[in-house]
Amino acid sequence: MNVLVTYPERCVGCRICEQWCSWKHEGRVNPTKARVRVSRVHSKYLNVPVTCMQCAKSPCIAACREGALSKDPATGAVIVDEEKCIGCRRCVRACPYGAVAIDKDKRVVLICDLCGGEPQCVAHCREGAIEYVPLAVADRGQRAAYVETVAAAMEGGSK
Amino acid sequence: MAALKGLAGQILRVDLTSGSITKEPTPEDVFAGYIGARGVGAYLLLKELKPHTDPLGPDNKLIFLTGPVEGTLAPGANKITVTFRSPLTGTYFFSLCGGHLAPEVKFAGYDGIIIEGRGDHPVYLWIDDDRVTLKDASHLWGKLTHATEDAIRAELKDEAIRVACIGPAGEKLSRFACIQSDYHREFGRGGAGAVMGSKNLKAIAVRGSGSIEVADPAALEALAEKTYSILAGNLKARARRHYGTPEMVDGTNGLGYWGTRNFSSGYFEEANKINAASMKENIFVGHISCYACPIACGKVSYIKEGPYAGTMIEGPEFESAGLLGANCGVADLAALVKAVEICDTYGLDTMSAGAVASLAMECYEKGIITSRDTGGLDLRFGNGAALVALMEKIVRREGIGDLLAEGSKRAAEKLGVPELAMQVKGQEFATYDPRGCKGMGLGYAISPKGAHHMIAPTMGAETAGDGSKRFEYKGKAALVRETQFLLAVVDSLSLCSSMRFALGLKEQIELYRAVSGLALDEAGAMLIGEKITNLERLFNQREGFDRKDDYLPPRMLKEKMPTGPSQGHLVELDPMLDEYYDLMGWDRQGRPTAEKLAALGLAHLWREVS
C-alpha cells in the first residue's frame, strides 16, 4: 500500500497540484474543491502542501457519526459516501492536518481519494514536493534528509 | 448561453467618489475582438477616458483585466494587467503582475475590475466572491506593502486571501510607484501605484471560490501536459528555473549591452559579482512560484551578515540587478538586495528607481549636484551604501528624494541636464543598452509606454548565433513589428512571457481555442496584435504624442559605446523609424493613416473617441 509523503521544503507554491486535483475530480479548476491545498506563509517565504496523510487510525472516520467515511481496502484512501455525508464538518475539525475541506455546492466533505491509486498531484508536481510511496519505506526520504544534515555537521566538525 | 468560454462573465465597476459598486456583464464582443487583458484594456481606456485626463485626478481609471486562459488548466496563466494613463509618461499604460492575484479574481467571478473616482478617505476594496464592499483603510495608510497584506489577511481572518496594495511611495504619489501583490509581485512600471494612491485606494483584497468553464477540456488537458514536457526539456526554461531571471546577466553583459553607470557604457566589469552564479552561491535560499507556473523562476534571497543582515526578498530580478546594480555601478549583492527590499516594501518600481539613482550618481560625479544636495551622501557610482540611503530618501520623498520621485525625465529637466535622463516619453530605459542591440532601441522608441523592454523584446532573436546580428539594421523594423504583435497577443492572453520558451504563437493560439471555443488562427491572432498596437498608438496620438516623442536620448545617438564588446556603436534611429512607420501603415509622423484604420476596422472607433 502506498501513501502520500509531502516535502514542504521542496514546494514552490505553484499550486499545479490543486489545479489537477480539482480538474480530475470536478472537471474544472477550482482550488476550493481541491483535496490538496498549498498554503503560503508569506512572512517566511514558505509554501506548505497540505493533503491527506492516510493516517492508520483515521481521526476523520472516528469523528464521523453518520458512517459516511470509510477506507478503501485497495488504496487505503478515505472514501466519502456523499449520500451519507451530512456536511457537519466534524471530520474537518478532527483532522490534525487540516486536510479535509467542504464542497460549498454539494455540502459534502472533500477528502483525498488518491485518485484511485494514481494521485494527480504527484503526477504533476515538478518539484517532487509530494511523493506516493510504499508505506514500508515512506520514512526514507525524511531519514535521508536527516542523515545528510548530520553528515554535513560531522564533515564540518572534522576539519 | 455565452458563446465565448473561458470568461467569468462579469466586470466589477467601483466608483470611489460615490462609493457605488456595480457589476456589468463582460463585453464578450470586446473580448472576442481583443482576446483579453492588455487588448481589452487598450480598447476600454481609449473609449472610457476623456482626452487629456489628469493621470493623478479622479477621472483617471485603473482598469484591471484578466485573460481568458486564467483559472483554467493553462500553464503559466497568472498575469493580470492594469491599464491607465500614466503619471510618469502621460501616455496610455499597462502594467502586468504575476503571482496569484489573477486566478483569484476570476474564481471570485470577475474578468476585470474598473476603479474610478476618488475616495474622500483611504479605503480598501474587499471582493469576497459576489459580496463586494469598500472598507475603511485609515489604519492602513502609511503601512508598508508587506505589513498591509498581513494586516488585511489578519483582519479578514483568512491567510489565503490575495491582496494588491500600495505602500507609502504610492500614497506620496511618486510617479513610478507600483502596486504590490504577494509580497514581491508587482504592477511595476508606469506609476500605477501613484494612481491608486491618488484615488485613496490602499488595497484590493480578493477571495474567490468559483471556477471557469472551458470549451474543449480534453484538448486543454493535452496541451497542458505537452507544455510541461516541452518546458522540462527546454534549456532556456531550465536556466530560468535554476537561476531565475538573473540567468540573463552573463549573456547581456557578455555581449556588451547591459546598461552600466547610467548607460555611459554597456559593459559592467564587475558583473560576475551580481550575476546568477554569484546570487546562487551567496544569497539564494529558496524558490517561489507564481500560480500555475511550471518554471518557478522566483528565487528567495537572504542576507546572512553585514549591515543588511536579515534582509529577505524574492529576487533580485534581472532588471533590478541591472538598473540598481550595473547601472549604478554597484556590485555589492547585499546592498542590491536591500535596495530591492526598500522598493518592494514601500511600493516603488525597482527599475525606474535604479534609473533615477544612476542619473543622480552621474550628476554627482559631474558636480551638477553636490553632497549639500544629497544630504551628505557620497553618491559616486558603485557606492552601495549610498544607493541604499538614497532609496530611503526617494521612497519618503526626503531632500533630493523628493525630486527623484518625480522620475528621471522631470528630475533631469529640473537639474538642467535633460540629456542625462535615459528615458523615452518619461519612462526610464530597461536594462538593455540599445547601442549594443539596435532592435531594442527601436522597440524603446516606438513603445506606447516609453522605453519598455517587453513591448518588442527582440533581444533573443538579435543575439542568436554569434550575436553579430544585434548590430545590423536590416530587418529590424520588421522584427520589432512582428514581436510587438506577438507580445500584444501574449499579454492579452495573460500568459507569462516566459511561457514563450515552450509555446510559440501556434501553441498559444491552440490554448486559446481550447479554452474559448473561438476558431482563431495565427494570422487572426497577429491581426489582433496589430489592432491592439494601433489602439495604443491612437490613445497617445489623442494626447499629442507623435514622432517627436519616438526618440532615444542623445547619448544613444551620438556617444559611441566606449567599452566592451559593443564598443564604437551608436543607434541610427531615423532610418529604422521611417521603415517601421512604413511597415505599420503609419505616416512619417507615426500616425496611423486613414487607410490603415479602415483596413483594421478601427476608423469608426477613432471617429467616435477623437
UniProtKB/TrEMBL annotation, chain A:
All copies of domain 4Fe-4S ferredoxin-type, residue ranges: 1-32, 76-105
Keywords, comma-separated and alphabetical: 4Fe-4S, Electron transport, Iron, Iron-sulfur, Metal-binding, Oxidoreductase, Transport
One of the record's GO molecular function terms: metal ion binding
Pfam family, one: Fer4_11
Coiled-coil zones: none
Entries under InterPro entries matching the protein: 4Fe4S_Fe-S-bd (IPR017896), 4Fe4S_Fe_S_CS (IPR017900), RnfB_subfamily (IPR050294)
E.C. number(s) listed in UniProt: 1.2.1.58
Protein's UniProt keywords contain Iron-sulfur: yes
Top-level EC class as recorded in UniProt: oxidoreductase
Domain of life: Bacteria
Name listed for the protein in its UniProt record: NADH-dependent phenylglyoxylate dehydrogenase subunit beta
Record organism: Neomoorella glycerini
UniProtKB/TrEMBL annotation, chain B:
GO MF annotations in UniProt: 4 iron, 4 sulfur cluster binding; electron transfer activity; metal ion binding; oxidoreductase activity, acting on the aldehyde or oxo group of donors, iron-sulfur protein as acceptor
Pfam families on file: AFOR_C, AFOR_N
Cofactor: [4Fe-4S] cluster; tungstopterin
InterPro entries in UniProt: Ald_Fedxn_OxRdtase_dom2 (IPR013984), Ald_Fedxn_OxRdtase_dom3 (IPR013985), Ald_Fedxn_OxRdtase_N (IPR013983), Ald_Fedxn_OxRdtase_N_sf (IPR036503), OxRdtase_Ald_Fedxn_C (IPR001203), Tungsten_al_ferr_oxy-like_C (IPR036021), W-dependent_AOR (IPR051919)
EC number in record: 1.-.-.-
Domain Aldehyde ferredoxin oxidoreductase N-terminal per the UniProt entry, residue ranges: 7-210
Keywords for the protein's UniProt record, in alphabetical order: 4Fe-4S, Iron, Iron-sulfur, Metal-binding, Oxidoreductase
Record Gene3D superfamilies: Aldehyde Ferredoxin Oxidoreductase Protein, subunit A, domain 2, Aldehyde Ferredoxin Oxidoreductase Protein, subunit A, domain 3, Aldehyde ferredoxin oxidoreductase, N-terminal domain
SUPFAM superfamilies, alphabetized: Aldehyde ferredoxin oxidoreductase, C-terminal domains, Aldehyde ferredoxin oxidoreductase, N-terminal domain
SMART domains listed in its UniProt record: AFOR_N
Family stated for the protein in its record: Belongs to the AOR/FOR family.
Protein known as: Putative oxidoreductase YdhV
Source organism: Neomoorella glycerini
